[in-house]
Design brief:
203 residues, Rossmann fold, six-stranded mixed sheet, two-stranded antiparallel sheet, 6 helices, 8 strands, 36% helix, 17% strand
Length: 203
């Protein structure tokens, strides 16, 4: 990697961290009722989409307090007899593994990051090895309406999607869910960052 590329990457990294801090403060200043209201509207928009309705195998993140709540979506996926896959983090890699039911979700242990996820010894179907995914519903720190996404900095989703495309020669439909306050006019990106097909907000 030459000096110019290194400098550019460092500049992008710094700019991304500034946006992360800015959005973090914004989300902390929204009251819980408003977060819930926006989540409800986003849920209704999502389940009305043809891309959602036609998808049989869906990956969804299990939300934390500062993300669009995905519990209603999870219930709807099960109610419509679709297959659900959730993130499972192991070191620097992420897999999408099968979730069997709402009871299964409720029994999941909570990690040190305060995210529900199956334990490492829990053997589950891996989406990549059992037929792929039609749709991935992604979290993020910030988004642009044109599909750019800023994650938490570990690159889990970007690595997963790039790997998926290499192995399967196709890409699942990618939908980002966001609060209005997470939308930016632009986000600095590099070649590893994956653009999403659609960003859903309450607006």
């Amino acid at each position: 990697m030459n000096k110019v590329t290194t400098t550019m990457n460092n500049t992008i990294k710094t700019a991304k961290n500034i946006i992360r801090k800015e959005i973090d403060i914004k989300i902390k200043n929204i009251d819980k009722q408003e977060l819930g209201r926006q989540s409800d509207v986003v849920y209704k928009k999502l389940i009305a989409l043809p891309q959602y309705q036609l998808s049989k195998r869906i990956s969804i993140y299990l939300s934390t307090d500062n993300e669009i709540n995905t519990l209603s979506i999870l219930k709807n996926i099960f109610d419509n007899n679709k297959e659900v896959f959730i993130p499972m983090y192991e070191g620097k890699l992420m897999k999408m593994v099968k979730l069997k039911s709402i009871q299964d979700y409720e029994n999941l242990p909570i990690t040190k990051w305060n995210i529900k996820q199956p334990s490492v010894n829990d053997v589950r179907d891996d989406a990549l090895l059992t037929g792929g995914l039609d749709l991935i519903i992604l979290p993020g720190v910030a988004f642009t309406m044109s599909g750019k996404r800023l994650g938490h900095g570990m690159g889990y989703y970007d690595k997963y999607i790039n790997n998926y495309i290499q192995l399967k020669n196709k890409k699942p439909y990618l939908i980002g869910l966001a609060f209005n306050e997470q939308i930016k006019d632009d986000i600095p990106t590099n070649e590893q960052d994956v653009n999403l097909d659609l960003i859903l907000t309450e607006r």
